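A common beginner's mistake is to predict each chain separately and then try to dock the pieces by hand. The better habit, illustrated here, is to supply every component at once so that their relative placement is modeled jointly.
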Amino acid sequence: MNFLYSDGPIIACSTGTNANSAMAVIRISGFKSLSQFKDFFTKDLTGPIEPRKVYFTSLVLQGQFIDDVCLTFFEGPKSYNGENILEISVHGNMLNVERILGLFQSYAGCRLASAGEFTYRALKNKKIDLSQVEGLDLFLNAQSSYALEQGLSLLSGNLHDIYVELYNLFLIHKSSLELSIDFSDDIGEEAARDYYLKSLEQFSSKFSSLVKRVGPMGPGLLQPEIVLAGLPNSGKSSFFNFLLSEERAIVSSTAGTTRDYLTEFLKIGEVRYKLIDTAGIRESSDLIEAEGVRRSKSKLTNAFYRVLLINPFEISPEFDDLIINEFDLILFTHSDLPGFNEVRQKLILKHPSLGSIGAIDLTRISQEWETYFFNLVNKKYLDITLDKPILLDRHKGLILQADTILMRYQALATTEADVAILSHELNTLGSCISDILGIVSPDQVLNSIFSNFCIGK
Amino acid sequence: MKIYDVLIVGGGHAGIEAAYIASQFGLEVAIVTMPGVSIGSAPCNPSVGGVGKGQVVRELDALGGLMGFLADRAGIQFRTLNDSKGFAVQSSRVQIDKEKYSLEAEEKIQSIKNISVIREKVQAITKDDVFEIVADNRYFAKKVIMTVGTFLNGKLHTGNESTTGGRVGCDKSGGLSDLFSEIKTGTQRFKTGTPPRLDKASIDYSRLEEQPSDSTVRNFHCLHSPYSRFSEQVSCYLARTNQSTMEIIRHNKERSPMFNGQIKGTGARYCPSIEDKAFRYPDKNIHHVFIEPEGLNLDTVYPSGISSSLPRDVQEEYVHSIEGLEEGKILVYGYAVEYDVVDTTELNLTLEHRGVSGLFFAGQVNGTSGYEEAAGQGFIAGANASLSILGMDSLILNRHESYIGVMIEDLTSNTRDEPYRLFTARSENRLFLREDNTLLRMFPYRAKFLLNLELDQYQARFVNSYETLSDFCDETMVSEKSPLLVEFSGDGELQKLTKRMSVSEILKQAWLNPINTLNRILGYNGIAIDTDLVRAVAISKKYDGYIKRSSDQQEKLKKMDTTKINWEEIVSSGNISFECKQRITRIRPETFGQLKLIEGIRPATLAVVAAKAL
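With all components supplied together, the output reads:
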């Protein structure tokens, strides 16, 4: 994210401009003084305006009435992003909102904000840190109540506190090492060593509890996907339609009808899943279909819940490749056809891993079966989120990276006498930890030395 | 009318370095110093060097400075700090005989024909074509260097008594604005303190831990024979405070000028007085107190660690509570001094004032603490004043190559709210900024002075031999059959050396002391080489991999950081916030690195500048 243009006042409608509604909230951020908007309101803005108090007034342009509005002034730096913010609640007709946005752009020197720019300014003004920005994003775009919760947790709650605490513990450890270099005479060799080991222990025990919360990579939980996989004509699309109760995918008995994957949203429990009907896995000479097949494969690896559908009457050589993947549920289709039990049995004998699975008849699928399927998916979700896994890939990646470095460093801490080399290794760990929060500051180490340790001449 | 080339106000550690380097260029130099204050005196701790500071003294020495020479001559106890912690963080420290140090300084300066020492108090300085310095007489100079230490509006405190003065028994000077109508005085005042001095005969040394002088510490001055000593060697002693010491101080909080509001200046957190320690760390009662001799013929010792401005009776009481100091007799009471400091963001990287060309500031007046920091700045100011008279390129040390460079950049790119002291932690390149390779790091800078003194000839030979020995290590292969490999193998399974490898590779092995190893290899081949060379090459080889790794990362940054920028252009461009413009206008950064160091500069501003400049 790079906002390379001017830092002047920006304006946006915070409640969206896609539909008419009773009211809309327009925000202006980053202006120097309220009085620069004095010509637009009947309320006298050059007089005292109390921050965080709502004023009812009229919005006017060159004396002409535009709308009745409510004004709230948030004075920087005590505002969301540290800048002066003016919030204007207007009537939420789309045309009205657009007209007002235009008015402030043409006559008051405001510029339309880019996506995320209000928050970017909050980051820039150190009102929030990077992990909080991510938390906000997670919160605003959450697809499940768990993601919502973690978004909040990152924004102002527990997870953010853990990161901050981890970072502080790192600083304390880092400064204990610096202390033993620059001030060992002042505090004594033994005390320095003691600080060093104790602070390393504190850091690593905190860190190890965080590592446990790192699940597999990929969007898995953040945007959980249910993927239907199978060879062509295995009944994926029929199953897809059944779950959504509508004719979304084109169902036909010609293999290869679904060339690319189709997606729809499906709410199970408190989670909004993306349901994906993949193209049938088949070596295809059709270029478009081949691309669809490739994408299907990658969809499988990232999925939260994988369903394999098997039509035991039509097994092609690609089947061997397909069943290498792990599946949460395997369904046999076409059970209404004669000889089903025999071909099914033969297939299971050939591939014993398919053994313990039931079969369903898609022509006679029942409401009970749907409930059963939903329960399976929901249970998996609840099981996984029980341990409060971390959702964001960037965080997971950094934590795992830090974990590897920490292991190497801990081994070194007991064998390496050269403190400068230790410190060199510790710096690589530090950049991982500070990257999580998006902060880098060398002075913080020195500050930490002085606030935690006693030194002097 | 005689016009001096360089006139220095103040004869402390900064002043004499400035004078000494200027004299090497053959310029006419004057030191104007307060009557009654001796040259190169050490009013606080009686030592030179220390962690990070040892490197500064050696850097100075390699550049042609004076401090290393004087410290060796006056040195009465030598130590290597961080001896067991690896070569990169090892630093030398020398306890000096203060009296002798000052006498050596006087003698050295007096012996230089083109330095005049004028003992008068400066009243005013004005600038027309040249500077006019009004003291008892009038003097004229092309360049003026202010190294006035703690004398600007100096004020001393002991308990509720406060007097004016730059240090105990000395006059103060006026404020900067009194001297210089063109410069507005910074509003900032700093505070520093010094402990009571004890009668050395009144201490029971048998109850303290002895720290004898270490004969294996190399002298600072590179032309001195490495391990010879010029003075009798004595020991330091370690004492410790206890619960009753700290309680005495805590009971007298309201009598401490630091806590009752009498002192307004800000002291350094890393140089806290004993009052600071008592109140800042209420749970800790044991603090180290080093008993350091102040001179062979002086009666006083310096108890390092208990600096204080408490009233005299409290000082008596807490000193006597310390084991071994029960009978300790205080000869000079501890005091704190408050003084005006210059806003160093008004200086450029040569330490010249941006508002008044030809006027330089160096030393404690710039808000630093420590003799070494002062000397380093004095040298930079003196060298640059001289170079500009001679029309030569300025001396700007890169922060990745020297601690002095780190300090100058830190000073000129930010205002501080406490005195500045060098730590190794301030450097991003600690593995490279070592004592052993100082000559190599500084040689390219010194060589640009185009001088051909004994020092220059020695350094050229050293650097040449270094390269020869370094190539020898890279190119000489030790065969898998050599008994040396068995000898150098460690105990662990992975520590067995069985393959043919170069000498350099052997020196990298973690379990080997590289110096002993290289000595052994050279001895095995019947070669005898200067110990300084062996040390420098062996340690460089050991750290080679680490330095390469971090320098690869730093190379990009360094290239970016040293890129010159035009701050005026940046400020006049429309893309930058008002607040950033204000900060940039105040600091006037010359490089991208300096711009980055400015507090509160926005990432967006950096991005704009980077996109344009790089």
